[in-house]
Design goal:
Two copies of one chain form a homodimer. By secondary structure, chain A is of the alpha+beta class. Chain A has two domains: 164 residues, 60s Ribosomal Protein L30, Chain: A, CATH 3.30.1330; 69 residues, CofE-like domain (CofE-like fold), CATH 3.90.1660. Helices cover 25% and strands 26% of the residues of chain A. Chain A is built from six helices and twelve strands. A five-stranded mixed sheet of chain A has the order 1-12-2-8-9. A three-stranded antiparallel sheet of chain A has the order 4-5-6. The first copy, chain A, has a two-stranded antiparallel ribbon with strand order 3-7. In chain A, strand 8 and strand 9 form a beta hairpin. In chain A, helix 1 packs across helix 5 and helix 3 packs across helix 4. The longest helix of chain A is centred in the middle third of the chain and has 16 residues. The N and C termini of chain A lie far apart (50 Å).
């Protein structure tokens, strides 16, 4: 008898508002324990970028920002504040689109997304914004190591953010950082049901796990910034990098 | 005491190889029942396009296809067979990119994807390919109504396919057809933790549910073409259309 394939996505409630220098690994372990779903080996812990950025002090107060002449100019067309545009451009390696209120950039890491990932929601104090973590794989690794130290449990960690997509309306959560799990599952060379050899398929499981986690995370008032994905079978990959998901420029059909 | 938010993604094993005119609703109910996870009210039944296309007879034998002069010409650059290119173009409303072996088209429904969704994998007989369903929302509705008739259970149904993404390596499953659930969850106007009003966010939950389901679906040899998503709270929407996810051309920044 074969077992039933099942993946559980468990939201972790009760994580307090995160401040700079908070110990995220500890907060996650404590909250999971407290709600009766302690972390176990092989869990995948999915953490939203927002609380990682807060814990790492990646916050900017807009009124402390001096916009450049270019940011002032661009801000008019974009209907954003010049200070916000300055922060967004400061996080960007290049501008991909700047049209009709949209500012799509390439971040220093190479992610292509709106506003370099700079975000005004769920930050206290009105004019504070969060920046993406400096190195989201490193952020993931720190949380993973902390969980191992505190609980002895071997898990994988994924840091996520909410991105729009070309051609499709709406946002989905995608992976921005990983530790212990590759964001891509390479199926090339495998045979299908009838012996046809798959030539192209790599499943972007990092993004799929991120999207699955979003289903239990709160979106506005009821913030659930962490999810546990349990039952998904994966190979432990110590060298995994989320940036493997970034399409190399020479293969980019849409720029 | 608040409950723990949890979503279960359950793969449905034991669905036989699907043939034209098979009763998918019946096959799904029987297989779910047999493995001990019978369908219950509010389940979301996720079904891969491949078996829907087979049940609806959306199959073409390549050797029966006569390619046009343009298909012959294009096939050379694309390193695909002229017959395959002919089938792909026959399903397309426009060509979005045709470069370096890639043929990205806009399907008649408006989906932008590789090869108009025409697929050679998991089809018997070597030169058979599947086309996307003619109307995936209708396909979803039929399965949903059949499940209601057979079990009395009120569910939602999502038809999925595997798409690549601009800017990101790898494929994810996305929704192509829905019945009973909107593919978009509109969060605009809601307030965040600190009273900031979200201005832009619509969560593409149809795509996120599709990606979650992919985590338990087989990718090649062990085919699991159906998943049950249980515990996700949604509003029943009888007017939902998957094509609401298609970005209107005038808002398309990347064409």
């Amino acid at each position: 008898m074969t077992s039933i394939p099942e993946v559980r996505v468990i939201g972790v409630r009760g994580i307090p508002l995160v401040k700079s220098d908070d110990d995220l690994g500890q907060l996650i372990c404590a909250a999971a324990e407290k709600q009766g779903t302690p972390i176990i080996d092989r869990d995948i812990i999915v953490v939203t970028q927002k609380i990682v950025s807060k814990a790492e002090g990646r916050l900017v107060r807009l009124k402390d920002v001096t916009p450049s002449p270019f940011s002032r100019q661009a801000a008019q067309n974009l209907h954003k504040s010049p200070q916000l545009v300055e922060v967004i451009l400061g996080e960007a390696k290049s501008i991909v689109r700047m049209v009709g209120g949209h500012l799509i950039t390439e971040t220093r890491d190479g992610w292509i997304c709106a506003n370099s990932g700079v975000d005004q929601s769920n930050v206290s104090g009105g004019d504070m914004v969060t920046l993406l973590p400096v190195d989201s794989d490193r952020s993931a690794r720190r949380i993973r190591e902390r969980i191992l130290t505190l609980t002895g449990r071997q898990v994988a960690v994924i840091i996520t953010d909410t991105f729009g997509r070309p051609f499709r309306v709406g946002h989905v959560d995608v992976c921005l950082g990983v530790s212990g799990i590759s964001p891509l599952l390479d199926l090339r060379g495998q045979q299908d049901l009838f012996g046809y050899v798959l030539r192209v398929k790599r499943a972007a499981i990092g993004d799929e796990l991120a999207s699955a986690a979003e289903l239990v995370m709160g979106n506005s008032r009821e913030q659930i910034p962490v999810a546990i994905i349990r039952g998904y079978s994966y190979a432990i990959d110590e060298a995994a990098k989320a940036t493997d998901v970034i399409m190399p420029m020479e293969r980019n059909l849409f720029l």
